[in-house]
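At this stage, I needed to go through a protein sequence along with its fold in token form, as given directly below:
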Amino acid sequence: MVRIEVEETEEQVSNPSKPSSSPPSSSPKNADEGFETASDGELGDSDDDHRHPHQSQSDQQDEQIVSPNDHDDHLNQKALEQANDAKLEGNKLYSSGQFEDALSRYELALELAPEIPSSVEIRSTCHSNRAICYLKLGKYEDTIKECTKALELNPSYLKALLRRGEAHEKLEHFEEAIADMKKILELDPSNDQARKSIRRLEPLAEEKREKMKEEMIGKLKEMGNSLLGRFGMSVDNFKAVKDPNTGSYSISFQR
């Protein structure tokens, strides 16, 4: 018998009239069948709308981890910009003598500024600016608190040290004021204002120490008289003598 073979034309191959009756091949499918190759995956779009349905689960998880961080960075940057705007408004109000209103704008800036490393400068500045507002309003305790907060964020903040020192002086905390001025000199040895303040404050601090000693001795005398009176004596029978070399006192009994 003669076997007749029919040769398929290009048209028949590309446009078959019916499905092939041959069984499906067991060989792996290639990229032309809709599967992503390695190079396609590297060049493909990473947006969720363009993610291939066969993309691996780990790749999707990686994208989900990165996206929230980018979103947070954007929100933090926007919050910093809003905080800076509020701070600038506070500066204008302070310059026009509206200290109470300036305080509220600085407070708003502190509420807006996120607690991240890049916001340390604006937060320390706002606390220091609130301190100078309180100083102008005569609220020296609040001035000290705000300066301390600024210095917790920025320990080398000279303005905060200076303003806290001024508030301490107003409250006659001379020792504390001297300590702040000395800290300024450690950070800036050429600071004449701090050096002059120390020279002016040291005699005041010494005078206050002596006054406190006298007050303490007076209270001790009152207590002593109440006890010694039962024995027909008083503290006048005891004399306190100050040692000029050491500054300490010794007690002698006199009848």
